[in-house]
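Mods, move this if it's the wrong board.
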Amino acid sequence: MASQSGGGIPGPGSWALRSHSSCSPDVEDTWENMTILQIYFRQDRDEVLDNLLAFVCTIWPEIHENYRINE
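Not the wrong board. Structure tokens:
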């Protein structure tokens, strides 16, 4: 007879055998956290993009101090 402690077979007290109603608070917490993250993303998106574009597009061309022109 095979042991139920290994091989991926859930035991009698396993989470796989819980009722679906016990998962409901976890789903609600996750849903609330995702909603909060989406709100923060929408609020900060424009500022972050402006800062990123300013950083990337601000180019000050200059010759490196070690560059030597061959004459």
